[in-house]
Design a protein that fits this description.
single chain, 359 residues, mainly alpha, two-stranded antiparallel sheet, 12 helices, 9 strands, binds zinc ion
Length: 359
């Protein structure tokens, strides 16, 4: 290990050129592997190998304001400005250095590669060939949404090699500790609308005056009629829930709501027009897919991360762990603001200092 570090320090000091550094790293890495390794001898060779496996990527020039990509008919380098916002395509227009580059990892060769080996190919066909063997649900193929899709697209469902794709986005920063935005696909409208999916127009959301966070109320609507929490005003937000459970909104209903919306792409976008109050801000591009309207489930929240965050906050609060507890002055002030649970409102001592009481 020591020998490796010495060697890597040496070449990092010696070489200033990127390619040499990359080649040097490869030498260090192959040193760390056991005898008889088959590591590519240079950076160039490793790139060639990755390309051969169908793992390469394409560089596409993008607008710094995210309004468009220079591809297809716009790929030509003589097009110098973004057609939507007018920003320049170049950071340096003489040397033609692009202002922003999107790295596109083409999907098809990656999927095809999974069918090259008999092992992975078997796993790719599992949803078709093995699903019904023991009836134990453990794969999205057991869900109503998957089955409904297959009923609607019989031709597609008949071929075991066909693949159903799910798109994951990490625009939420669900761990709360990633400073940089690791975004696979980020869409403000999509995320905002995750919350309104079930209750749609009647979603109750508010911003906490002191805690400065958005919160969503009215969850008791989803409990069955007669559930004891529905009538429990005192322990909750001071109201009784008398409304019925809303029925899930269908893709066709959403499409109807977004049909009239006019919006432009990119960060500099102007306010969309034709937006119904409390609903969608744009029509997402997925509606261009012929089946999207009929999907039973359009978006899912990542339950694992939500469970983790809820659990964290619960434990921090129960243990009263310093700054991480959610039972703080702001929360108590918000209770006062909402006019509920007066026994927990912040109180003042004779000295004038505020204190929080616990019951
Ligand atoms: Zn632009």
């Amino acid at each position: 290990m020591e020998h490796m570090l010495k060697k890597s320090n040496k070449f990092l000091v010696q070489s200033r050129r990127t390619l040499e550094v990359k080649d040097g790293l490869i030498i260090v890495e192959s040193d760390a592997l056991p005898e008889g390794e088959k590591f590519p001898p240079s950076f160039y060779e490793s790139k060639k190998l990755v390309k051969g496996l169908g793992l390469n990527y394409k560089k596409i020039h993008a607008c710094p304001n995210d309004c468009m990509l220079f591809r297809k008919e716009f790929a030509n380098k003589d097009i110098n400005n973004y057609l939507i916002c007018g920003a320049s395509r170049w950071k340096n227009s003489i040397k033609k250095i692009p202002a922003k580059v999107l790295r596109h990892f083409p999907l098809k060769p990656r999927l095809q590669r999974l069918f090259v080996s008999s092992k992975t190919s078997k796993l790719m066909r599992w949803h078709y060939e093995e699903r019904n063997r023991d009836g134990v649900p453990r794969h999205p193929a057991y869900t109503e949404a998957w089955k409904a899709f297959e009923t609607r697209h019989l031709e597609f469902a008949k071929d075991s090699c066909n693949v159903l794709l799910g798109l994951a986005s990490d625009g939420f920063n669900s761990f709360g500790m990633m400073r940089s935005h690791m975004v696979l696909y980020q869409d403000g409208a999509l995320m905002v609308n995750l919350h309104v999916l079930a209750a749609n127009i009647s979603t109750q959301s508010k911003r906490l005056k002191h805690g400065k966070k958005f919160y969503f109320m009215g969850h008791r609507r989803f409990l069955k009629q007669g559930h004891k929490y529905r009538n429990n005003a005192k322990s909750l937000d001071g109201t009784k829930e008398l409304r019925t459970t809303p029925s899930p909104i269908s893709g066709s209903q959403v499409l109807k709501q977004v049909r009239g919306i006019k919006f432009t792409l990119g960060q500099l976008r102007e306010k969309a027009s034709g937006v119904m109050k409390n609903t969608w801000k744009k029509k997402i591009i997925f509606f261009n897919l012929p089946y999207w309207e009929y999907n039973l489930v359009h978006h899912n929240l990542d339950m694992m991360h939500i469970e983790k965050n809820v659990c964290d906050n619960l434990i921090y609060t129960l243990l009263g762990l310093g700054k991480k507890t959610k039972d703080n002055l702001e929360a108590r002030l918000d209770l006062k603001e909402m006019n509920i649970k007066p026994s927990l409102w912040p109180k003042k001592r004779a000295s004038g200092r505020t204190y929080l009481c616990y019951t």
